[in-house]
Amino acid sequence: MKILVGISRIIVGVLFIISGLIKLNDPVGFSFKLKDYFAPEVLNLGFLVPYALLIAIFLVIIEVLLGVALLLGYLKKLTLWSLLLMIVFFTFLTFYSAYFNKVTDCGCFGDAIKLTPWESFSKDIVLLVLILILFIGRKYIQPFFTKGTRSILIFATFVACLGIIYYVLLHLPIIDFRPYKIGANIKEGMTIPENAPGPIYEYKWKFNVNGEEKIITTTGDYPKVDGELISTDTEMIQEGYTPPIHDFTMERDGEDYTAQFLDEENLVVIIAYSLGNTEKDGYIPIKEVTDKALKNGYNVIGLSASSQEMTEALVEEYKLNFKFYFCDETTLKTIVRSNPGILELDNGTIKQKLHWNDALKLQLPVVENAKPKLDFSLKQRLDSIVVLDQKYRLLMQARSLEERKKLGEKMGLTEAEYSGDLSQMQLVLDSVNMVFVEKYFIQKGYPGKSVVGEESSLVAWNVLQHNPDKIPLYLPLVKRAADAGEIPKTSAAMMEDRYLMMEGKPQIYGTQGMSYDDARGSFIWPIENPETVNERRKEAGFDETIEVYSKILFGDDFVYKPRTMEQINQQ
Question: Which sequence ranges are marked TM in the entry (predicted)?
Fold first, then answer.
């Protein structure tokens, strides 16, 4: 019995210490797991969710202290009772999770060792048996060292645990066991090997054979039975290979940019999985390092599970010079235990990963053949102009006075503003915006993406569109900017078509249409050489043919028919 107790003492003590230290290395990750257990569909302990991190820290420190105390023989009675109560609680928890399939990973060993729910329950049963052996043979548990030395070692362990907790909360886990550790390639982590095992299903075929029901079980093949098939039940009995990274996406406006960004050589990614509880102080150093990254030739994006409305508000509040894309919240929490956090990617490989507290430690050498330095002061001014450019136009789209009032109040406008002559007020703003943009045109040319970034490169184009009397003067400038890749060629094509229409001439690309309430109806403005317009549209970068584009303008029932200037002038 003495030997059995000694072996059990070592196994239980070491397992508790290892399990505690792994979770001590990543208490934030353990708190996420506790939140899973606290969820309404599991234990329904929602009131504990705000305290999940504190509970996680308390449990992991206790776990380590109990393991050390058991090995030292410190406060034997208290230690054994604490071990028993803890293992009984976790045995119940893992059984509940496994039986009802509520939480698929108990988090017992963090991300270092993944256990299925039933494996976790089996592990706890073994520990429960070993702890019961310790209870029965507790007289054989002899302490090591003197009482004072044991107390000092326990206190030193407690202080060490606090030190580790303090460090990893202000930085990142000391050891990263996740598939997103530094050096890992996200593209490779998402790949399924050619010979990877697939899932195995069990099929239960119910037949009517001579008036009797007969069930035949196979793993896929249709059974050879002389009878009428009544029903089939399918159950997965073994899961197939699941790649370590399987929920990673970069999406915006319904488009998936994952492949594009994972192929970039110099990409900085700011991760803010939830803006509802993000650390706002983190965006001050993040703005500094992302501005530097852009100047040094890096592309910068954000990833968040929050709404686009929230991310755009954050960008505006902190004057960030990048935009956010959507990714699953659980995935983002797995990538970095910081909200916000920072990644540097090179063709999908994680080169650097930092807590926002360490943002200024981000190493960003200048990229050879980097893009020209962005003018952030100009960009901020243009981004402000965007707001003014749409200020009253949004109100003019309101379908009723009540809707206009609600929208105006939401925008912080006075009653005089949202109930006044919106068209006239917008004309004044458009004129003011044009003064600034025209001055820049004259002094430095068109402020394209190499100057203010891709997102702000069309601000000046929009301002010019809303001041049509200036289009003839600056259309050549816009076309040069498009030829230089500073703005999309489609934008220059649209402005050229608009200019030609205003001059009463046929357009080139078919981007302009007209609608009347009388017999003239809706039509595409006459096009020069309409038989080859789709070729020109394709060369300019338009995805749709003129036939498809006209339906976008006027509805699915619209049928495009080319008109001539003579026909227009006769109407």
Answer: 7-25, 45-71, 78-99, 125-141, 153-172
